[in-house]
Write a structure and sequence with these properties.
71 residues; mainly alpha; 4 helices; 61% helix
Length: 71
């Protein structure tokens, strides 16, 4: 079951790790690989497909966020 970014936002609930795992396994299977040959890139692609956001995007946003000054 592919949960699209639109559906994930529409349901107003966070995406679960299980949903990402299911999609990652689907992507690996489509590429001709089976468990345990699910690649890290499958997980990253699954997360990006479902949330519309990549880990790199989140990392860049965190780096660009204003930093709190320490006293």
């Amino acid at each position: 079951m592919l949960l699209t970014m639109f559906e994930a936002k529409k349901r107003n609930k966070p995406v679960t790790r299980d949903e990402v795992n299911i999609r990652a396994h689907e992507l690996a299977k489509l590429a001709g690989r089976t468990y345990p040959d699910v690649a890290q890139s499958d997980y990253e692609q699954a997360k990006e497909e479902i949330t519309g956001e990549s880990d790199r995007t989140r990392q860049n946003e965190a780096l660009d966020a204003p930093r709190l000054k320490k006293h």
